């Protein structure tokens, strides 16, 4: 099931929420049977209640499948219109099982 879903995201920009609450965006270039993901041109969005969202450039990035909580496709047109410097929010906490 995961393989079919991820196949549709290859060469598209996706957003990943990790189990430790990080938000990473990048173009999905590949994945394997354990859902390890390879992202190209990736950035991490760091949220703060006091300042705007900071984007940290990560470049080519590998995320282990067991660290992933959520994967979703990004609407690139809508994403380009967002003023991240004006957004404020609490950082996500860890995923608890």
Folded structure, characterized:
The chain is mainly β. Helix content is 12%, strand content 42%. The chain is built from 2 helices and 5 strands; from the N terminus they run αβββββα. It has helices at residues 2-7, 76-81, and strands spanning 13-18, 23-31, 37-46, 54-63, 68-73. Strands 4-3-2-1-5 form a 5-stranded antiparallel β-sheet. Strand 1 (13-18) and strand 2 form a beta hairpin.
Radius of gyration: 13 Å
Helix fraction by DSSP (H/I, runs of at least 4): 10-25%
Q: What's the β-strand tally?
A: 5
Tally the helices: 2
| Cα end-to-end separation | 21 Å
Q: What's the helix-strand series?
A: HEEEEEH
The biggest sheet amounts to: 5 strands, antiparallel
Enumerate the strands of the largest sheet in spatial order, edge to edge or round the barrel.
4-3-2-1-5
Q: Which spans of ≥5 residues are poorly predicted at pLDDT below 50? A: none
Q: Mean pLDDT score, rounded?
A: 92
Q: Proportion of β residues?
A: 35-45%
Estimated structural class: mainly beta
Give the overall shape.
globular
